[in-house]
Amino acid sequence: MVLTVRALKPENAEAWKTLRLEAVATYPDAFLATADEVRAMSADQITQMLEAGMWLGVFEDGALAGMTGMTRPTSARAAHRAEIGGFYIRPACQGNGAADALMQALVVHVRALGIWQLELCVAEKNPRAIRFYERHKFLRQGRMPNIVIGAEGPETDLFYTRDLRG
Ligand SMILES: CC(C)(COP(=O)(O)OP(=O)(O)OC[C@H]1O[C@@H](n2cnc3c(N)ncnc32)[C@H](O)[C@@H]1OP(=O)(O)O)[C@@H](O)C(=O)NCCC(=O)NCCS
Hints:
This protein is α+β, with helices and mostly antiparallel strands. The protein has helices at about 15-25, 35-40, 45-50, 100-110, 125-135; strands at about 5, 55-60, 65-70, 80-90, 115-125, 140-150, 155-165. The protein has one domain: Gcn5-related N-acetyltransferase (GNAT) (Aminopeptidase). About 30% of the residues lie in helices and about 35% in strands. The longest helix is centred in the middle third of the chain and has 15 residues, at about 100-110. Coenzyme A binds next to strand 4, helix 4 and helix 5. Coenzyme A binds near residues 94, 128 and 135.
């Protein structure tokens, strides 16, 4: 099995939408967006988003196995920060190193942009993702109550940061 990671480009728009729909449909509690919201995204919107070069895809033997996005604040004083969103590995590829490869490439990618603080929110009831992020040196900074209203009521996220200096 060969794992490669590269930035997703506008020509990956269709594959991005297919994988994103799979992610939110399979793990509705893990992502903010709903399947309907993803379905409603136009090809132009997705193309524009991918043009910014802030989505990375991990490929297993050439097939897209997972992806993640990064958002950077627009203010100059916050240019050292990026928030990770939409981190997803297809169930068949979980536990095989694809997530590690994606995270390692993400760190290289953002460092090259001068970013040294990564941030993310993860659902309190997502122990697998929490374990994964903590193994990748993310530190828990706090809880964010009522982040979304889920099927059973308000849900809580945990807020994590990772300092890439040193
Ligand atoms: C979160 C995700 C990206 C991690 O990728 P992965 O390939 O599953 O990660 P890994 O297998 O490398 O690491 C997961 C760790 O959680 C552990 N784990 C698995 N199930 C667990 C559970 N129920 N409770 C606690 N830990 C658990 C694994 O044993 C592994 O720990 P280890 O490193 O000590 O062996 C992937 O599972 C995924 O895409 N999940 C669905 C979408 C999602 O939740 N995205 C995150 C949104 S914030």
